[in-house]
Write a structure and sequence with these properties.
With 313 residues, the protein is mainly α. The chain folds into 2 domains: 2-76, no CATH class; 106-272, MetI-like fold (Orthogonal Bundle). It has 14 helices and no strands. Helix 2 (34-41) crosses helix 3. The longest helix has 36 residues, at 90-125.
């Protein structure tokens, strides 16, 4: 198991370098001049002399590979530069906005697991029954409805009509209910159907027939064997979804004015805050990589065959 973890960690090094290079190149391929954007954000007239002097100060007059190496050296030290708008450290701003997103993601993941696991298992056990038909209808509606529309529906019914939850911002636990439900609902429907399909496939495997022939209880077969094996495809999807949610659910955070990574990223794009955009892109890429690593490690715990194959390599 230790060798498996070491190999996965080692494989992250070229991936992280690739993410940093792509992030750096994408920013430099976007139209516009960072020096001009900085002057406008500082309410300074972008004259030719001012732009030229600032380009020298920011190091934009150097060759591209030199700029990348200097930027990469600063990134390794968690120095992502200074924001053009707030004049604060990009790293500090990202950390400040990451905690609200992590809070929203944690609440959404709880809803996803608490609802999708039993709903998907019950739908598979009672295939073709009324509960299965209802779950399929709910899943179809959930994956078809845009997140912003579902969020507006929740705001209209639970905030405007019933006055149960606040509409915008972050503060008490009540502020967390509507955005977390909006963020979780499409994933609940997706993983409910995914778990159902995986369980139906595993229920027809030979090991289920052998377990029944040995006289094991149906509850033990389904809960202890079939469900555990059926969680692997769901775990893969959840790892990708977790990275998406942690990197900032842009639409949900915009609808509910949630001060997270998505909201920070959108405002940075609108204000052409190049260091902040670059820092957010890099941070989001790292989050996806880390989430995939955690999924690989979880796979090794759930399926011993993966662990031992990694040990033999």
């Amino acid at each position: 198991m230790g060798w498996f973890i070491v190999k996965r960690l080692t494989s992250l090094i070229p991936i992280l370098f690739g993410i940093s290079f792509i992030t750096f190149i994408l920013i430099h391929l976007t139209p516009g001049d960072p020096a001009t954007a900085y002057l406008r954000a500082s309410h300074i007239p972008p004259t030719d002399e001012a732009v030229a002097a600032l380009r020298v100060e920011l190091g934009l007059d150097k060759p591209l590979y030199v700029q990348y190496l200097e930027w990469l050296g600063n990134v390794i030290q968690l120095d992502l530069g200074m924001s053009y708008v707030s004049k604060k450290s990009v790293w500090d701003e990202i950390v400040l906005h990451f905690f609200p997103t992590a809070q929203l993601t944690f609440a959404s993941c709880i809803l996803i697991l608490v609802i999708s696991l039993p709903a998907g298992a019950i739908s598979a056990i009672y295939k073709g029954k009324l509960v299965d038909q209802l779950s399929r209808i709910v899943a179809f509606v959930g994956v078809s409805m845009p997140a912003f529309w579902f969020g507006f529906l929740l705001i209209y019914f639970f905030s405007v009509q019933l006055d149960l939850f606040p509409v915008l911002g972050r503060g008490t636990a009540a502020h967390l209910v509507l955005p977390s439900l909006t963020l979780a609902f499409p994933y609940i429907c997706t993983y409910m159907r995914l778990l159902r399909a995986s369980m139906l496939e595993n229920l027809n495997e030979p090991f289920v027939m052998y377990a029944r022939a040995r006289g094991l209880r149906e509850r033990l077969i389904v809960g202890g064997h079939v469900l555990k094996k059926s969680l692997l495809p769901m775990l893969t999807g959840l790892g990708m979804s977790l990275g998406n949610m942690l990197s900032g659910a842009v639409i949900v955070e915009t609808v509910f004015a949630w001060p997270g990574m998505g909201h920070l990223f959108v405002t940075s794009i609108l204000s052409r805050d190049y260091p902040m955009i670059q820092g957010c892109l890099l941070f989001m890429g790292v989050i996806f990589v880390v989430c995939n690593l955690l999924v690989d490690l979880a796979y090794a715990f759930l399926d011993p065959r993966i662990r031992w194959e990694g040990e033999r390599e």
